[in-house]
Amino acid sequence: MTTTSESTSEELDAVFPAGTMEPGYVLGGALDPDPAAVFKDVSDEDRAYWDRARTFVQDEVLPVIAGYWERAEYPLHLVKRLGELDLLRDGIDVDGFPAMSKTAAGLVTMELSRGDGSMGTVVAVQGGLALRSVAECGSPEQQAQWLSSLARAEEYGAFALTEPAHGSDSVGLETTAAAVEGGYVLNGEKKWIGNGSIGGLTVVWARGDDGQVHGYLVPQDSPGYSATTIDGKLSLRAIWQAHIRLENVFVPMENVLPGARSFKDTARVLLATRLGVAWSAVGHATACYETAVQYAGQRQQFGRPLAASQIVQERLARMHSELATMQLMVMQMTRLDEEGVLTPAQAALAKFTCTRTARSVASNARDLLGGNGILLANRVARHFADIEGIHTYEGTETVQALIIGRSITGISAFA
User: Which candidate, 182, 358, 364, 411, has a CA 20 to 30 Å from the CA of 349?
Assistant: First the structure.
């Protein structure tokens, strides 16, 4: 005979093993780690930019960005907000805008990258590369036409240097600019071009009839300009990067950058953005460290918080130390940049040190979170993947090492 016993919900609750239920971890808090008090003397003006970026990240980026990242969608409304909040200029002077120091620019990049790597990359592309190219190499007329609109994100900007067959060997680019009546005709392909397929302005770098590299302002609706958004990325998924084909694209003389006369002028633009990548790495590492600290305090294992374990405390101390190293590096290099004496080797050293150290912090944090470390909701996996993107762009670790090595030995190993 089968008997059926009736149990009240209270009785079921009494026997249900509540300890099997996972708690809701709160891992997005800003802990402001500053082990060496590197940021204690940041000016009020610079801190105002930092605070504005922090509020944007906490209130507008973190609540939604994991979804955009997972779907590989570009949250253009957040790009517009960056322009509205005056967070896009990367320290470049633009008429009608308040002064923004290089330190403020670094802090903004750090903070945005702490929120999401794609948001940090937006500033690197729109401000650090496209806006800077016009600001440093453009005519007064070009600057009047484009600087303010790019700074406000009323127009999108792209920087087309890298080619499919010339990544780190960008000096060997083969896109051509042939002189014709009234301007130039561009032919060639570019790859990994952020903002290159969303409409707007692309700064195209091509080799002229004189054999030198020059810059050309190309609206993306120009006849012969075609761009395909690159799919299948496992890093920086919330910004679109393009494979561009330039087929007999006519550029009128008024769209030629007069100050871009050789690859040395291109390198001037890249020098500043290379330091920006180092700041971005600090932001990623900060996010991973903060998440690890908060998780270690909330996760219970063996009847106590993870944070009570000696080996966990050693890991957190290691990340703490690495974060201090990165912070000291970017602040010192930015001081040199403010003074106008930063060298290419020093910028390379900052990028080399910070991206590889950020990888270490992210790997440690991801392991500390265990299986939860691969969930987008817990932040670390997204940063872990995005660091791989910044580890490569603006020159791979190997290329940075060769720049540093050349400064040490006086011998170039590039060719």
Answer: 364
